[in-house]
Amino acid sequence: MSDLFQDDPPAHQNAMHQKSVRDDAPLADRLRPDNLSQVIGQDHITGEDGSIGRMVAAGKLSSIILWGPPGTGKTSIARLLAAETNMHYKPLSAVFSGVADLKKAFSEAEKIAQTGKKTLLFVDEIHRFNKAQQDGFLPFVEQGIVTLVGATTENPSFELNAALLSRAQIVILNRLDHAALEGLLSRAEKLLQRALPLTNEARDAMVASADGDGRFLLNQAETLFSVKIDAPLDPAALAKFLQRRVAVYDKSGDGHYNLISALHKSMRGSDPQAALYWLARMLVAGEEPLYILRRIVRFASEDIGMADPNALAQCIAAKEAYDFLGSPEGELAIVQACLYCATAPKSNALYAAQKSSFKSARETGSLIPPRNILNAPTQLMKDIGYGKDYSYDHNDDDGFSGDNYWPEGMDSAEFYQPVARGFERKIRERLDYWSELRAKKQS
Questions:
Q1: Percent of the chain residues past pLDDT 90, beyond the cut
Q2: Which residues pair with 172 in a beta bridge?
Q3: In the chain, N or C terminus with fewer CB closer than 10 Å?
Q4: Which pLDDT does position 247 carry in this prediction?
Q5: What is the pLDDT of residues 349-383, one digit of tens each?
Q6: Contact of 38 with 5, CB cutoff 8 Å
Q7: How many angstroms separate the CA atoms of 356 and 421, rounded?
């Protein structure tokens, strides 16, 4: 795992570190930090005012969950926390470990506790453990036999037990920005005492291709250092030499929900440019197009509704076009639906009307309609008043009878309240006109 730096370590620390790492070790291994101050890009947690910085200063470490993208220093922070709080460091990976490994780790921690030393149990990819395995941590954490430090790239609130979350502090690591990644490259060049064979433009392109992952960037740099390159590579030559990293995106994980949320809110905010960007991010990363289309269709009713009734028709047409054309040709129809929705007038009046009417229906579900609007297919029904005095609206001069359609025991309600935007402006005028007519006819 890569470890990320901020400044050069003191000479004696660097020398001690180099003794423990083989010269032929991976570049990321050779660039591991020796203390928390050298972890790059995470000052908000490792600094004096950060949650981890305060714990270390107090000499009291609580169980924590490190949540962040790949290659941002989670493993390094865990290892350094153990060193700086004088704890026994026990690493495990949820990918390769099972119940037997956990039992062995807890047994080892119990023996070490008898010597007066505490154990920091680092569990990488902790979200890979199932709920029962996660429950197994609880008694050992509660008794203080281990201090748990878990690392995950997934949203802990979705992937970890509530009981475990209640006993641990969530610490969020930042995606490494351009400056932090550039600092890693500079440090690698200093260690190897030579510059990367890249033009400035190619260097920027390589940093961008890392997508915030320091480990990936150092692995790419090591590949460049390992071969003889006569002249600095430009971006085109670099692209041929190195395969660009695919953006991190798990279609069943947190990124999936983050990006669809970003798309939805960009369309709602009437920003077609941002909406296109998030749509492209999802499609380029391999998201199922029909999943995106389902959300856009939903958006047409939830966030546009009657402000532009044609939005729903546009989205359904996009779905049919995609079904007919497939990828990549059909993706143009998805773009059209996205842009139509992003640029349409917005209203959630329809959505609000559904919520409030459904709530009312659940609360008054036993009330029957007034008899005048009930069908009377039999003589008995006619005799007891079904359909009596029903006003046929088309016979009225205004095409509007103003009759009462609400059940006895319930006052009329105004669930649908159109806004003064788009087509709903006309609907609002129409409803106001009918309201005036109804008041006159019922007076």
A1: 52
A2: 67
A3: C
A4: 56
A5: 999 999 999 999 988 877 888 888 888 888 888 88
A6: yes
A7: 21
Q: Kindly state the tokens that stand for 404.
A: 């009462």
Residues near 85 by beta carbon (within 8 Å), at least 6 away in sequence: 55, 56, 59, 61, 120
Q: What is the DSSP letter of 189?
A: H
Q: Under 8 Å CB-to-CB from 286, ≥6 apart: which residues?
A: 249, 251
Distance CA 370, CA 364 (A): 14
Task: Provide the 10 A C-beta neighbour count for residue 44.
Answer: 15
Q: Quick one: pLDDT at residue 3? A: 42
Place 18 in a pLDDT band, splitting at 50, 70 and 90.
very low
Q: How many Cα atoms sit within 13 Å of 411 on the Cβ side?
A: 2
Q: How far apart are CA 73 and CA 176, in angstroms?
A: 10
Provide the residue type at 221 as one letter. A
User: How far, CA to CA in Å, does 395 sit from each of 237, 374, 380?
Assistant: 79, 18, 27
The CA distance from 420 to 430, in Å, is 12
The SS3 of residue 11 is helix
Closest CA to 92 of 76, 77, 107, 75: 75
- Predicted pLDDT at 125: 93
Q: DSSP assignment of 382-424, as one string?
A: HHTTTTTT---GGGSTTS------SPTT----------SSTTH
pLDDT band at 82 (very low <50, low <70, confident <90, very high): very high
Identify the CA nearest to 72 among candidates 144, 177, 170.
177
